[in-house]
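Lecture 7 notes: from sequence to structure.

We start with a single chain of 164 residues. Read the sequence below before looking at the structure.
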Amino acid sequence: MRILGIDPGLANTGWGVIDSIQHRSRPVSFGIIKTNKEVDQSSRIFSIAEQIAKISEQYDIEYCSMEDIYFTKNISSAIAVAKVIGAITYSLVKRDIPVTLYSPLQIKSTITGYGNADKKQVQEMIRLQLGLTKIPRPDHSADALAAAVCFATFNNSLERIKLK
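Now the structure, written as tokens:
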């Protein structure tokens, strides 16, 4: 199964593609989509959704896993991220690609076994789980790969339960 993981953001949206075959995940590709802060917000959001659609076509994506919105103090940036999530979701569901959202806590717990793991711990575990020689850079792409691995892990668990 081919999974697209996404770490949504208005300035930088991370993406990562993995294959999950027989309960093993392997990296296919990853990167980020950068937007220019000088451009209006609507155009930036549209551009992100369009580029994600192209990535989904290029890599023949079957499922998408995206980190859900999280904020503590800055509600204005959270609203922008929520708009990005909505645009990406619309773009992918329109192409019959199901989108699953996971909280940062769910992703961290799945990847490291600890919901309060820091960014470096998650990145190192992604490096190890995907057999990479280096931590994926930039950070947003590592976070996107973590979202994809989270989906694969949940899906593998569901398959095991169905077999019993």
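The beta strands are 2-7, 12-21, 24-34, 63-67, 99-102. Keep this in mind for problem set 3.
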